[in-house]
Design a protein that fits this description.
Elements: E1 9-13, H1 17-29, E2 34-38, H2 41-50, E3 55-59, E4 61-62, E5 65-66, H3 68-76, E6 81-85, E7 101-103, H4 108-120
Parallel strand pairs: 1-2, 1-3, 3-6, 6-7
Antiparallel strand pairs: 4-5
Helix pairs in contact: 2-3
Length: 121
């Protein structure tokens, strides 16, 4: 399952520094080639528009604001992604109900499985 992530370029959109550091470490352990990160929607959208990613992980709430614009940019650029949230999963936006949602806190195996599944689609 984890071999899907070896050599991949990953975008992580997360506003909590400690959670971001944990995710980056997990992705390095999974063999990802590079991990770019953003903590604000505007920076994340700019990264999506100016770089190439194999997969992304998107926190649904960035500093109290919706990350819907990032989800739309990822979809427009055909970048598969998973949501992450510490809130209720009932809040997934229209048009994105098919995206996997990782509930925080999540385990290494859950992260690897979710990202591998969206890459395998």
């Amino acid at each position: 399952m984890d071999r899907f992530l070896v050599g991949r370029r990953v975008l992580v959109v997360e506003d909590e520094v400690l959670i971001l550091m944990m995710i980056e470490e997990m992705l390095a352990d999974l063999g990802c080639e590079s991990v770019a990160s953003a903590s604000m929607a505007g920076k994340a959208v700019a990264l999506v528009e100016n770089d190439t990613f194999d997969v992304a992980m998107l926190d649904m709430n960035l500093n109290g604001r919706s990350s819907l614009a990032v989800a739309q940019a990822l979809a427009a650029h055909s970048v598969p992604f998973v949501f992450s949230t510490g809130n209720s999963i009932d809040e997934v936006w229209d048009g994105f109900a098919d995206r996997p949602v990782l509930r925080k806190p999540f385990r290494f195996e859950e992260l690897a499985g979710s990202l591998s599944r969206v890459l395998a689609r």
